[in-house]
């Protein structure tokens, strides 16, 4: 148990489902971390549904919450987990589009990324942050080096459209970690994972991935391979259980709805705590 390890999680919150803080808090608590959750958004449900209601906190309201923690001297944290992982955009059918206004990109590049220890961009986000396109594994590694030079010691490109030797049914995840050895030299660890695609649209998987990667890199600070294998394998178990339950609820021949595809987190507690490794990472 990580009884003395405290995390401040600043993310969205939904009443129903596992997105944002709900997707991050449960796995971190299961893995032994103390969590203080600040809800930047409070919605009835995630925005994958047809309708949602709720509130969005502005910067002054967020600051007020933090000031309350500070006044009581309970604002000492080992980690801060935010939605800036970074959430910038993604590719759909080969075309990239941004989730946020383009004028926020310099803010991410100049203020957010330099103070981060770990970032988990997708390929499109990595290209935006570096200003370079990725067409090969070598180019992806070069982009990760650029991202390291901006500040973060751990960079994981969570999905890419690079071709996998296993075929078009697989996505490629690439990871890079920069560590300092006792003699002061820099050690680099690079890994690659080929992950089978899932024919479903989930919401909250990025939040879950970031939370579990934080936990497992804390527990395995000098072994990115193991940290990524545990993170991705746990994700696999959660998603497979979610799909199985969703199909059963939707009925034969009916495509599951967003309600059916809410992540089965509580049911996956044991897989989150002690994931059976079903996706291996190759050290590059």
UniProtKB/TrEMBL annotation:
Sequence ranges assigned to domain Pyridoxamine kinase/Phosphomethylpyrimidine kinase in this UniProt record: 73-242
Subcellular location(s) per record: Cytoplasm, Cytosol
Pathway noted in the entry: Cofactor metabolism; pyridoxal 5'-phosphate salvage; pyridoxamine 5'-phosphate from pyridoxamine: step 1/1; Cofactor metabolism; pyridoxal 5'-phosphate salvage; pyridoxine 5'-phosphate from pyridoxine: step 1/1; Cofactor metabolism; pyridoxal 5'-phosphate salvage; pyridoxal 5'-phosphate from pyridoxal: step 1/1
Cofactor: Zn(2+); Mg(2+)
Protein EC: 2.7.1.35
Gene3D superfamilies assigned: 3.40.1190.20
Superkingdom of origin organism: Eukaryota
Recorded GO CC terms: cytosol
NCBIfam families reported for this sequence: pyridox_kin (TIGR00687)
Role played: Catalyzes the phosphorylation of the dietary vitamin B6 vitamers pyridoxal (PL), pyridoxine (PN) and pyridoxamine (PM) to form pyridoxal 5'-phosphate (PLP), pyridoxine 5'-phosphate (PNP) and pyridoxamine 5'-phosphate (PMP), respectively. PLP is the active form of vitamin B6, and acts as a cofactor for over 140 different enzymatic reactions.
Protein name per its UniProtKB record: Pyridoxal kinase
Organism classification: Eukaryota, Metazoa, Chordata, Craniata, Vertebrata
């Amino acid at each position: 148990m990580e009884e003395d390890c405290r995390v401040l999680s600043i993310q969205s919150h939904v009443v129903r489902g596992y997105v944002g803080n709900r997707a991050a808090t449960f796995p971190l608590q299961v893995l032994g971390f103390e969590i203080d959750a600040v809800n930047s958004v409070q919605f009835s449900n995630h925005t994958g549904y047809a309708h949602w209601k709720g509130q969005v906190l502005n910067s002054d309201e967020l600051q007020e919450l933090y000031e309350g923690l500070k006044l009581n001297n309970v604002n000492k944290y080992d980690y801060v987990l935010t939605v800036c992982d970074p959430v910038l955009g993604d590719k759909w059918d080969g075309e990239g589009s941004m989730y946020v206004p383009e004028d926020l990109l310099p803010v991410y590049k100049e203020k957010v990324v330099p103070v981060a220890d770990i970032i988990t961009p997708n390929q499109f986000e990595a290209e935006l942050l570096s200003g370079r396109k990725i067409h090969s594994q070598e180019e992806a590694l070069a982009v990760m080096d650029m991202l390291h030079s901006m500040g973060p010691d751990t960079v994981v490109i969570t999905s890419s459209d690079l071709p996998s030797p296993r075929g078009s049914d697989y996505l490629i995840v690439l990871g890079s970690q920069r560590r300092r050895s006792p003699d002061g030299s820099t050690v680099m660890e690079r890994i690659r994972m080929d992950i089978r695609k899932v024919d479903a649209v989930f919401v909250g998987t990025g939040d879950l991935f970031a939370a579990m990667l934080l936990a497992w890199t804390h527990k395995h600070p000098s072994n990115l391979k193991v940290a990524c294998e545990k993170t991705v394998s746990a994700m696999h178990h959660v998603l497979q259980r979610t799909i199985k339950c969703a199909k059963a609820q939707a009925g034969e021949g009916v495509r599951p709805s967003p309600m059916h595809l809410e992540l089965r987190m509580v049911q996956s507690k044991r897989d989150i705590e002690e994931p059976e490794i079903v996706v291996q990472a190759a050290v590059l």
